[in-house]
Amino acid sequence: MKVVPASFGLETFEDVVWEALEDLMIEEEKNHSESGAATDEIECRAVTFVVAAADINDPILAEGGKESPQAEFESDSFRAFSSTLGEQLRAFSDIEDVPLIDEVELTSFHPLWKNSCAIDGGVERKQAGDCHFPYPAVAVSMSARP
What is this structure's pTM? Predict the structure, then answer.
């Protein structure tokens, strides 16, 4: 998990998302080279959550009248930002001719969004708490190579 103060804004948050992906790729490559290409291993996903934590000590909020970078994490802005992350991943995958789009998943969460807890055979299952995430976040996951 990587925590970014929301007062740092979306640009810094995006940098940390890509850093988390790079870390996962390095770790996955390391694990793959150490274990070899065993065919009977169970496939699992490595996940890193990048979370935007509210910054109550933000001096801009204290001044009033100015808009803090924390406002960038508002629901609609964060949804648009999340969409561009997916587009950037797709573009990078195409430009570099690397199948990242098949291996990497970026899943965004926001306190005002209602997310599915689990999908079982195409049927959504709910769990206690209705799957609301307490902070804006992006889960960066990468499927393990068989």
Answer: 0.75
Length of the chain measured in residues: 146
- Tokens (6 digits) for 29: 């490559």
Q: Is the pLDDT higher at 55 or at 112? A: 112
Is there a contact between 10 and 16 (Cβ–Cβ < 8 Å)?
A: no
Instruction: Express each pLDDT in 80-108 by its tens digit.
Output: 999 999 899 999 888 888 888 888 889 99
- Token code pair at residue 42: 């169970």
Alpha helices in the chain (DSSP H): 9-35, 59-63, 75-96, 100-103
In what helix (H) or strand (E) does residue 53 lie, and over which residues does it extend?
Answer: strand 45-53
Strand 137-143 and strand 104-109: pairing?
A: antiparallel
Q: Taking Cα atoms as reference points, which of 30, 51, 64 lies closest to residue 135?
A: 51
